[in-house]
Amino acid sequence: MLVSALLLAGCSSQTTSEKSAALAPLTSDFGQPAQAAQAPLNMAKVRNYKLYIAPIIGAPLEIVTPLSLRFDTIIKTQSITLASNMETEADYILKGYLSNLTENNQTSVLYVWDVMDKQGNRVHRLQGQEKVSGKNGWSSVPATVMGKIADDTLADYFRWVSANAQ
């Protein structure tokens, strides 16, 4: 629940309709590369680095909650050590920004995650988007989509650390 508290701390308090959809099973296979060209994932290496997840910027609390809960599940399942203080304990800091764009009866959730070293320098950027039907902005986004964003974000982070961390 530490992850949940950290992530929720940076959310806006806008009100949207409650999401009751249950999160789907994990969509990313953390044990295999997503593409044949990628090196095998080395979770033992990933576990050597403490991660601090900064509060997420740009989305209301109701939207970030399912993402936060999914992060919590993945981090526990994968035995990742979280740093409680980014200045003194973290090897890497994951700082997320979410926004939405509505066009042609579709809402796109855009996400960017900066991976920063303990000095605060950005060392990598993860980004993507998910599209859903609906023209109501955040209220069109179900919890399952936020769970998928969490899955994809941490899978990409794990792959990056596995291949690049020193």
What does this entry look like structurally?
This protein has 166 residues and is α+β, with helices and mostly antiparallel strands. It has helices at residues 2-8, 43-46, 61-77, 143-164; strands at residues 51-53, 92-103, 106-117, 122-133. A four-stranded mixed beta sheet has the order 1-2-3-4.
Concise synopsis of the structure shown:
The protein is of the alpha+beta class. The protein has 4 helices and 4 strands, in the order ααβαβββα.
**Mind summarizing the main beta sheet?**
4 strands, mixed
- The number of helical elements comes to 4
The percentage helix is 25-40%
C-alpha geometry: elongated
Keywords:
4 strands, alpha+beta, four-stranded mixed sheet, elongated, 166 residues
Outline the secondary-structure elements.
Blueprint: H1 2-8, H2 43-46, E1 51-53, H3 61-77, E2 92-103, E3 106-117, E4 122-133, H4 143-164
Parallel strand pairs: 1-2
Antiparallel strand pairs: 2-3, 3-4
Helix pairs in contact: 1-3, 3-4
